[in-house]
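user:
I keep going back and forth on a fold encoding question. Separate attempts, laid side by side, tell us more than any discussion would. Would you put together a sequence-and-structure record for a protein of your own picking? Write it directly below this note and I will take it from there.

assistant:
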Amino acid sequence: MARLSRVCPVGVPQHVMQRGNNRQVCFADEQDLAAYAHWLTEASRKYQVDVHAWVFMTNHIHLLCTPQVENAVSRMMQTLGRQFVRYFNSRYQRTGTLWEGRYKSCLVQEEIYLLALYRYIELNPVRAGIVEQPSDYVWSSYASNAQGKVSELCTPHALYVALGNAESERQARYRQLFEQHVEGELLTEIRQTLNKGLALGNERFKAEIEKLTGRRVTARKAGRPAGWRKKDKVCE
């Protein structure tokens, strides 16, 4: 089945995920993680992408980001991917691909899903059983968003800023969001839209994106299209 072309409207947040080929390790130690974080910071600045949340796991990464110019996310990820592969192959004396095809992404409706995506991303190590609390995992944006750690990579989204007038107030309210995990239908919806490259939002949001871009961002209905029996009879 032909894959959908990318949609990257300026100012619309995106959830991005990239995985190691065949789920292989793409970060073997702290040096690899630090190198990736450094090049991501450089690429996000170069291509004008605001990165709001992230997590770097052993064999995949998640980002929540907003492009400020056309095709910014694609350019950032292409540059970052090639740069890290060259580094990784040189360091471990290997050849060939590292990533599992092109990265996955989906557009995100801010009002309904943005803060849920913050939590989904930063709770990834908890769901994986690596740590008990998101604060225990070093390679995510939780320390910046929830605890005020200074980060060159992190650009707060307007909805995050709106959590409070002062930084301490925002951080406290942000931590309260993590009293509930992302699970059930919400977890399924986040994963399905990302894997299919669709849009995470209500029907109005999806209709607006399709009108703006001319590209489908909703899932097709399962089964054969309406009227297929009549068409089959005509062809007999």
Observations:
- The chain is about 45% helix and 10% strand.
